[in-house]
Specification:
The complex is a heterodimer of chains A (299) and B (201). Chain A contains five helices and ten strands. Chain A has 299 residues and is an alpha/beta fold. Chain A has a domain of 204 residues: Collagenase (Catalytic Domain) (3-Layer(aba) Sandwich), CATH 3.40.390. Chain B is of the alpha+beta class. Chain B is built from four helices and eleven strands. Chain B has a five-stranded mixed barrel. In chain B, strands 1-11 form a two-stranded parallel sheet. In chain B, strands 5-6 form a two-stranded antiparallel sheet. In chain B, a hairpin with a 2-residue loop joins strand 2 and strand 3. Chain B starts with a helix and ends with a helix. Classes of the chains: A alpha/beta (299), B alpha+beta (201). Strand 7 of chain A pairs antiparallel with strand 6 of chain B.
């Protein structure tokens, strides 16, 4: 067994042992080679469970929002909604006044508007959540409200990147308030952020991670005991924090890979033919970008 | 009564209804991951498809591909067409789904059809240019399972995701097809296709 695989197995094992003693029906997304990718492992076990549960290496994770947000939901509303969704998971009551051992920082708005994972080590990444106002790029799927793509290592099952796309091109009825609710963005996002955190669908019909959502309700905003058991197992409160770095793999990048033209982490674009003066400006922009992100974390 | 309590009370009634439905024994476990989607009716998914087939997956390959301006892993699955229910798809067709595994990287895409080698399914397909996809992602994929009496019945795709019932009296394709025998499903789809064609005239 490789060292990384042992570490992954240890974390998964600790997670299972640390789960609170409540009625459970939750599942976690797993790396299953026989399904050519992702499957699930459930508690209690199901007959077709397969693979190793996906896991985040760091206990400090980050997410960003594409800066244009949506004509239906502006950036400020989207920031509030996504932060609230992650807060719900982070503040789950694991018993004894303890919470899941994970913090999820909002890393600010970004330029990048693509679902992507840059495997090239010279290019940074970001967990980008974006609205698709102009067009939904996946033909024949206009009925999809939100789509989450999780990229992970097949050897270790470590999650490298998670992006979320919201179909605001075809779905015109997203709402963020408590009245006149149609498709409640916070409900949808709380469910989807569960997937970001490595959870799969629960068998508990009342759970936020169950497979049905009733439109015109806000029922998925709150966690049930089953959701709490799942998140507390995925991020046990007393687990040692090996690392606490919310930098995405290969460094944080505000720009999509194709627009990143300098060293990793800077994420600045350079207009072609601008020469050395442009590179000086790039360095400055990089510092400004980093500063802004830090100020976002403090807020 | 709080909205959540009302919803839970409503949901508590669902298992009883599910137990009575023909799909109950075949509904299977929850999927590994999922998107949030609105359930399509049988009319909607048939109308949106260029072909509906019964087919068997025989070969699969994943690769990085440019899509929506970015690069993502997609999987092409070769489907041997056992029966064409509507439209035309030839004798075999390569179907593209999002996600898969390339090198040391895997990509899990919520709500996508999960086509496994050797599995037989009813597939609603949409062809655009040279690419054929599953209409409605997992909502257009119904694996066929032979029950204890030797009868082929349709199951829900394993990764259908979180689903929202459409408003009004519409019956979702899932509810119309899952648990049905293959023969009755073929009849139902054929009938819907004919009705759609009649409307066009």
């Amino acid at each position: 067994m490789k060292r990384r695989s042992k570490a992954a197995a240890a974390i998964v094992g600790v997670g299972l042992l640390a789960a609170p003693a409540v009625a459970q029906a939750y599942c976690r997304t797993a790396n299953c080679p026989s399904h050519d990718g992702a499957w699930q492992v459930c508690v209690p076990a199901e007959t077709d469970d397969c693979g190793t549960m996906l896991w985040w290496k760091s206990r400090c994770l980050g997410f960003t929002l594409q800066k244009d947000a949506s004509s239906q939901v502006n950036l400020a509303e989207a920031e509030k909604t996504f932060k609230a969704a992650f807060d719900t998971w982070m503040t789950a009551d694991c018993g004894g006044g303890k919470h899941p051992s994970v913090t999820i920082d909002y890393q600010g708005p970004v330029e990048c508007d693509k679902q992507e994972y840059n495997k090239d080590k010279t290019k940074g990444n970001a967990n980008v959540f974006m609205f698709r106002d102009d067009s939904w790029p996946y033909e024949g799927t206009a009925n999809i409200l939100a789509l989450t793509t999780v990229t992970y290592n097949l050897d270790t099952s470590e999650i490298y990147d998670a992006d979320m796309e919201i179909n605001s091109a075809d779905i015109k009825d997203f709402t963020v308030g408590d009245s006149n609710v149609k498709y409640d963005l916070l409900s949808v996002v709380t469910h989807e952020t569960g997937h970001y955190l490595g959870l799969a669908h629960s068998h508990d019909v009342s759970a936020t991670m169950y497979t049905d959502y009733k439109a015109m309700t806000t029922t998925l905003r709150d966690l049930t005991d089953d959701d709490t058991a799942a998140i507390c197992a995925a991020f046990p409160p007393d687990s040692p924090s090996a690392t606490c770095d919310d930098e995405p793999r290969h460094g944080f990048a505000e720009l999509c890979g194709v627009d990143q033209t300098v060293e990793k982490g800077c994420s600045c674009s350079v207009p072609s033919g601008e020469g050395s003066a442009a590179y000086g400006l790039v360095g400055l922009l990089g510092l400004l970008g980093l500063r802004r992100r830090r100020s976002q974390r403090r807020s | 009564m709080r909205p959540r309590a009302i919803a839970i009370a409503t949901l508590l009634l669902v298992p009883a209804l599910v137990t009575l439905s023909p799909s109950a024994p075949l509904s299977g476990p929850a999927p590994a991951e999922a998107s949030v989607s609105i359930l399509l009716s049988l009319e909607e998914i048939t109308a949106a498809s260029t072909a509906v087939i019964v087919g068997t997956a025989s070969e699969q390959k994943s690769q990085w591909e440019e899509l929506a301006g970015g690069r993502r892993i997609v999987t092409y699955t070769k489907i041997k067409v056992d029966k064409t229910i509507a439209g035309s798809a030839g004798t075999e067709v390569w179907v593209r789904t999002l996600g898969g595994a390339v090198g040391k990287l895997g990509q899990a895409v919520s709500g996508e059809a999960s086509l496994t080698i050797g599995s037989k399914s009813v597939l609603f397909l949409l062809k655009r240019g040279d690419v054929t996809m599953v209409t409605g992602m997992a909502q257009g994929h119904y694996p066929i399972k032979v029950d204890e009496k030797g009868i082929s019945r349709l199951k829900a795709s394993p990764d259908v995701g979180a689903q929202i019932q459409p408003s009004g009296p519409t019956i979702a394709a899932r509810d119309a097809l899952v648990g049905q025998t293959l023969d009755s499903a073929v009849t139902a789809i054929t009938k819907v296709r004919k009705a759609l064609d009649e409307k066009k005239k």
